[in-house]
Amino acid sequence: MSVGRETRLSAWIERFAAHFAEEGIPLIGGRILGYLLICQPVERTAAELSQELEASSGSISTNLKYLVNVGLVTKRTRRGRQAAEYRINEKAWTDFIQRKLTAIASVQTLTDDGMRLLSGDPERAMRLRTVDHLYGWLSAELPALWERRPASPK
Amino acid sequence: MSVGRETRLSAWIERFAAHFAEEGIPLIGGRILGYLLICQPVERTAAELSQELEASSGSISTNLKYLVNVGLVTKRTRRGRQAAEYRINEKAWTDFIQRKLTAIASVQTLTDDGMRLLSGDPERAMRLRTVDHLYGWLSAELPALWERRPASPK
DNA sequence: GATCCCTTTCGGTCGACACTGAAATCATCG
DNA sequence: CGATGATTTCAGTGTCGACCGAAAGGGATC
């Protein structure tokens, strides 16, 4: 007997969350992200998320705050509604990825400073130089690559 | 009165270690990396590292094992020497960075699987599609960019 | 084989952080 | 203004991992 679609989707959410857990995003935060990417309708209240994801209201609150903060989730309040509605802000993924790329390239400032401290001793600077060149190239190319990123599909 | 060069270098090592600590590398592991990049002579024993970095022999051992494992440090044993010598393997930084880039791009397999699960419901797949396109582009471009990386300076 | 030195292993401590659930807070509506 | 239904805050718990230092393990020399 085959498993239902919703079952497979929740397994997918779990894989999704697990991936980002490795990158330091709390498990529940990852679940919220995954869930909000594929739920119908697109907006959910904190209470609904708590129910759906079987997580405490406290965890949901903390993680929503974090996700709204980094921009991946948008909070919407409406007059006449006591419950705020949350939804994925798919546009924010570009910034999210860009931060990761710049984080990698940022090592270059570190190696650069090191090279300065070792100026006058090229022998000793050799190892760092190899690393510095690599990061120097990266920090030039990554932003350039990023500029060529395609617009999102219509 | 100005601070000495060695003092500044050890401050640099600390900054270096702090950066990689944010990426999940233990502080002491980062210190070893930074130190081995700029020490003279280039090879050190575990005992020397323990002394220089004021870390316990146990921590040095654990972290060296890890660094050797990921290839960033090379262990060399010599007949007639009871102490092994460790040095930076600056060549391995390319692999190290590549792993980070592929880790970012690997989200594409996740979004791709999600899209498959949502095939037949384009409405519901819209949010994921935006994210999937971005990662799809990345996982095509990043490896291509990487191929164009320059050789290390002679 | 005994000794010496160095490295690895291992038990234990400490601090950080995710998560929970209850209490406090807030907003809306009657 | 009080009641209602939602969210946020907060104290407490458990887990995990980095680090330490002592003990065990391994080579090398004598």
Automatic annotation (TrEMBL), chains A, B:
<protein>
    <submittedName>
        <fullName>MarR family transcriptional regulator</fullName>
    </submittedName>
</protein>
<keyword id="KW-0238">DNA-binding</keyword>
<dbReference type="GO" id="GO:0003677">
    <property type="term" value="F:DNA binding"/>
</dbReference>
<dbReference type="InterPro" id="IPR036388">
    <property type="entry name" value="WH-like_DNA-bd_sf"/>
</dbReference>
<keyword id="KW-0804">Transcription</keyword>
<dbReference type="InterPro" id="IPR052362">
    <property type="entry name" value="HTH-GbsR_regulator"/>
</dbReference>
<keyword id="KW-0805">Transcription regulation</keyword>
<dbReference type="InterPro" id="IPR036390">
    <property type="entry name" value="WH_DNA-bd_sf"/>
</dbReference>
